[in-house]
From TrEMBL:
It catalyses: alpha-D-glucose 1-phosphate + UTP + H(+) = UDP-alpha-D-glucose + diphosphate. It comes from the Bacteria. One of its GO terms (biological process) is UDP-alpha-D-glucose metabolic process. The lineage of its organism: Bacteria, Bacillati, Actinomycetota, Actinomycetes, Micrococcales. Residues 4-268 form the Nucleotidyl transferase domain. This is UTP--glucose-1-phosphate uridylyltransferase. It comes from Microbacterium ginsengisoli.
């Protein structure tokens, strides 16, 4: 049985208003699939067949997307449109997908805490929907492997321009014998460039041991009155007696940020350009467009 996966999806998506007034931001299309489907596919490709989505109000569209739509399936079947039928049925066959409400929007740490009963006493993965990881660069598989080898909590890190580190959580680290693996000794939330201990930013992938729930229970609300997952991870890094060490996998592959409007548009273009059915025509059009700018 594979590792369980938790996907927090209770955010209000205010950066994308009014598009997200009645539709969850996780359902915004990236080329021709909603963003959350890429995240579920990533979990499944890493061996996870049990996914818990933590939702807020007005998130019924998420459950509907991963459910069967028999009327649509029958219509496509009658038309003999096998290709579209396969795409429609793909989402409902990906994994065993569950939903739980977050209730009060008290932050990422609180959303993870809502998964406690479902996860139980097992190591589990947390995948945030704002970061899409290219399917050709198996980050989560490497993180699960490192967690098992080190009996550790593992977070994903990515090198960023030091001038941009103030936008991220940042890790203070020690090198290991593996080029892509570091030991995390401290975490600093959105430091000024001059104060940052490194240029390694936390991106939205975590492999967590069940002891994280006890720490989250004791974590006081931080910025914005929310329970911050970073604060709980900082506590684990500072005291290995709680749940063992914290390690970071340094990701050097392809990541698509869908967290704000400009990066979302860039992500759509990059993923479309990579596709055989869209890439050549889109590339030609972009070249033509660029010459006229």
């Amino acid at each position: 049985m594979g590792i369980k996966t938790v996907i927090p999806a209770a955010g209000l998506g205010t950066r994308f208003l009014p598009a997200t007034k009645a539709m969850p931001k996780e359902m915004l299309p990236v080329v021709d699939k909603p963003a959350i489907q890429y995240v579920v596919e990533e979990a499944v490709s890493a061996g996870s067949d049990d996914v818990l989505v933590v939702v807020g109000r007005n998130k019924n569209a998420l459950a509907n997307h991963f459910d069967r739509v028999t009327e649509l399936e029958h219509t496509l079947e009658r038309k003999g449109d096998a290709a579209k039928l396969a795409k429609v049925m793909e989402a409902s066959r990906l994994a065993d997908i569950h939903f739980v409400r977050q209730g009060d929007p008290l932050g990422l740490g609180h959303a993870v805490l809502r998964a406690r009963r479902h996860v139980g006493q097992e190591t589990f993965a947390v995948l945030l929907g704002d970061d899409l990881i290219d399917a050709r660069d198996p980050l989560l598989t490497r993180m699960i492997e490192a967690s098992a080898q080190k009996s550790a909590t593992v977070i994903a890190l990515m090198e960023v321009d030091p001038a941009q580190i103030h936008l991220y959580g940042c890790a203070a680290v020690e090198a290991t014998d593996d080029a892509d693996l570091v030991k995390v000794v401290d975490l600093v939330e959105k430091p000024a460039a001059a104060d940052a201990p490194s240029n390694l930013a936390i991106i939205g992938r975590y492999v967590l041991k069940p002891e994280i729930f006890e720490v989250l229970e004791e974590t006081a609300p931080g910025k914005g009155g929310e329970i911050q997952l970073t604060d709980a991870l900082k506590a684990l890094a500072a005291d290995e007696s709680i749940a063992g060490p914290v390690y970071g996998v340094i990701f050097r592959g392809r990541r698509y940020d869908t967290g704000d409007r400009l990066d979302y548009l860039k992500s759509n273009l990059l993923l479309a350009l990579d596709r055989d059915d869209l890439g050549p025509d889109l590339a030609a059009w972009l070249k033509e467009l660029a010459t006229g700018l």
